[in-house]
Amino acid sequence: MALFITGGAGFIGSAFIRTWIERYPAETVINFDKLTYAGNLDNVAEAARHPTYRFIHGDICDAEALRAAIPDGCDAIVHFAAESHVDRSILSAREFILTNVLGTQVLLDVAREKGVRRFLHISTDEVGGSLPEGRFFREDDPLVPSSPYAASKAAAEHLVRAAAHTFGLDAVITRTSNNYGPYQFPEKLIPLALTNALENRPIPVYGDGQQVRDWIHVDDNCAALRVVLEKGQPGATYHIGGRSPLPNRTVLLTLLDLLGKPASLLTEVADRLGHDRRYAVDCSRIERELGWRPQIPFVEGLAQTIAWYREHPTWVARARSGEYRQYYARMYGAL
Q: Where is the NAD(P)-binding domain (predicted)?
């Protein structure tokens, strides 16, 4: 089997590559990544030593680069590449439209040209918008994105479904809740709070901190993605959740308790514009049809994550300083 992974130097994409190679060492994996600020080849340093792994620096908006990189008859594309930080999308939506919308369409076009057998599109629970207490986002619910980021991901989903309906592309979509775990870029909630707490620095909390998110360990998510890639129904959408819905403040207090740090490190800041109050996915379909269920309880996974960040200070320092980007700029011209 030959897999073409977009965005494989990012947090979830790199975890998918590491776990895939561990389970299927004989299968070819091509990692195609633009190496923007969140793309870090340190995340796949171990995979890079494997003989079936290959890295190609490129942009999914560049059709010629994709044509040169994707093998004819490629077994599957797993499409992680995306601009993904809500705050950045509020400051400027342009990059999100270019990568998440235009880039997805270009990739779909080249996938058809190359005869790719399956297209797995990684989306997000944020396309469902904010939910009232007691309600869960189902796969057949309407999309009501609230942020520029979520809107760009919703648009990408429509393009994937259009390619499946119009051209018969074997495409599957997953929507995952909030991931956490090793190698996550430090601007996200848990690694930002964790690294700040280790240095006794203030931890910013948006508003009252009662925004609810469903947390899933990245390894559980990758296990679900493997099952969907291998067994998911063509044209289907699957929700992947950790069944661990928690307010952000509770997550942070749990983190501080595990670290033995005081709650006084939490510092309320002005809330994000248009901040969604609650996300919650109904993941019963993947559990019922494909037999997947999350295996890592949140507190256990959080403790493992803390241990990893403590044991990898060099990775943290390089990620926070941007040192790795200076190297890529010299080597690939990446920004």
A: 4-304
